[in-house]
Design brief:
There is one protein chain. This protein is mainly β. It has no helices and 16 strands. A hairpin with a 5-residue loop joins strand 8 and strand 9.
Length: about 190
């Protein structure tokens, strides 16, 4: 059993007959009244995100989890297939268990969170950022860089990312996986 002071990003808890992962939280201590914790919870079974508020000291049913490194192999349209790097066993997951599947390219190493009680995979954590090649974007207009103007660019995984005007097709860019935003251009 955990309580509200143990809440952190990535914590898996049992709530409303489902398993949820904490994706955001905020401890609030108002001047009047008791403290509480605002959370944003994501269901690991169906991907649904809910907002919930726990009063201070509330007991939570935490789920014991293990993390393992897996390599992303391929997507067959319905499932995403991964291989354990330690023992080469393969698992498949629905898209709902993944946070940003559109930014994942084949061969990417990810962390899979597994429920220790029944060895069921709960969710996949991507690296903080990934390096992807721009496959399509409109050319930037010379002299139009005084503002922070952006344009859409399609990367090698098929995802669309807003990039600065100086990015061209063939450039490699670093993308923050949590928000799916452009970070920087990678020099070759």
């Amino acid at each position: 059993m955990a309580n509200t002071s143990d809440i952190r990003n990535g914590l898996c808890i049992k709530y409303n007959n489902d398993i949820y992962k904490v994706i955001e939280f905020l401890h609030v201590k108002p001047g009047k009244g008791p403290a509480f914790v605002r959370t944003k919870l994501k269901s690991v079974t169906n991907g649904k995100v809910i907002d919930n508020t726990f009063s201070a000291g509330h007991k939570l049913d935490d789920v014991r989890v293990e993390t393992h490194k897996f390599q992303y192999l391929y997507n067959d349209g319905e499932f995403y297939h991964f291989m354990n790097e330690a023992d080469y066993t393969q698992i498949r997951l629905l898209e709902a268990a993944l946070d940003r599947p559109d930014l994942m390219k084949e061969g990417e190493i990810v962390t899979v969170i597994i429920n220790s009680e029944d060895n069921a995979p709960l969710s996949v954590e991507m690296p903080a950022s990934v390096i992807l090649e721009v496959t399509h974007t409109e050319p930037g207009v010379k002299g139009n860089t005084a503002t922070n103007a952006t344009k859409p660019a399609t990367v090698e995984t098929g995802a669309t990312v807003n990039v600065p005007l100086f990015i061209n097709e063939g450039d490699k860019i670093k993308v923050e996986t949590e928000k799916g935003t452009y970070k920087e251009r990678i020099k070759a």
